[in-house]
Amino acid sequence: MTLLTFRFAPSPNGALHLGHAYSALLNQRLARAVGGRLLLRIEDIDTARCTPELEAGIYRDLEWLGVEWERPVRRQSEHFFEYGALLDRLIGEDLAYPAFMSRGEIRAFIADSGKAADWLRDPDGAPLYPGADKALPAGERKRRVAEGTPFSWRLDMQAAMARAGERLFWTEFADEMLTTFREVEARPQDWGDVVIARRDIPTSYHLAVVADDAAQGVSHVVRGMDLYQAAGVQRLLQHLLGLPAPRYFHHRLILGPDGRKLSKSFSDTGLSALRAAGATPGDVRRMVGLE
Prior knowledge:
By secondary structure, the chain is of the alpha/beta class. It has 10 helices and 10 strands. It has helices at 18-33, 52-65, 80-92, 103-113, 138-146, 157-164, 205-215, 230-241, 271-276, 281-287, and strands at 5-8, 37-42, 70-75, 96-99, 152-155, 169-173, 181-185, 195-198, 220-224, 247-251. Strands 1-2-3 form a 3-stranded parallel beta sheet. A 3-stranded antiparallel beta sheet has the order 4-5-8. A hairpin with a 7-residue loop joins strand 6 (169-173) and strand 7 (181-185). Helix 7 crosses helix 8 (230-241). The mean pLDDT is 94.
C-alpha cells in the first residue's frame, strides 16, 4: 500500500517564524494521523539570498519544535538539471519564450499604452506581462540571448491553455482534519505569461515545486492560504508535463501584530527569538492554535 506523503518546504532566506511553525506542526500531525510520511524540502533556488547558515537554523528550529522528517532532505539547488529538462520540454513544444522586459520597462510600456488604469493584474497585484516579446522573430530572440541581454523564460499562457484543451481542477480540502473536499477550477490564465525560469537558474518556484512533488511522491500539499491562487499555475504545469496532481489544503495564516501575514522580518515571532526568550515548544503550539 502506498503511504500518504506530506511535505514541509521552507526557503532558507530568513529565520522561521510562527507561521512556519504552524505549517510544519500541522503537516506532522496530519501525516501521523494517517500513518503517512513527512518530508522536508529546502527550497533554495534563490542562490543569492539562501545561505547554509539559515538552512542550519531551519533544522535547529524544527528539531526544537519536535518535528521529525524522513532523510535525506531534498535541496532544490541540487536538482537544477531535472528542472532544466522540464523547461526544455516546454520550450521545445513552443510553450515558453524568452522575455526581455525588465520591471521598469514593463511599467513604462503600460504607462505609454494609455491603458494603465485598466491594465489587468495577477492575483498578487502585479501587472500582467505585456507579452510584446512573443511577437519577436526567432532570429531576434537568438541575437538578444547571444548578446547576453537579461531575460526570463515565460509560459505562453494562451498556447498552454490551448494545449491543455480542457478545464482543469484541483482537489482542495476544507478543514484541518482533511475530512471534506471540493474540486476547484484552476484559473492559471489569471497570472498571464508567468515566469517559469530565469536566465541563470533553469526554474522558478512554480516549475520546481511541481517537479519536486512528483519526484518525491507527495500526495498532500498542506501550505498557507497565500499560495492558494498559485495552485492554478501549478495544476496547468502538472497537466502539460504529465505529472501527478496531489491534493491540497491551504491553511489559515498566522497574522502579525499589525494584522498582516507574518514575514521573516518579524523578529519577535521568529522561533529562535522565542526560544531565546524562554518559550517552549508547547508555548508555540498554543500560540498557533495546535495544542
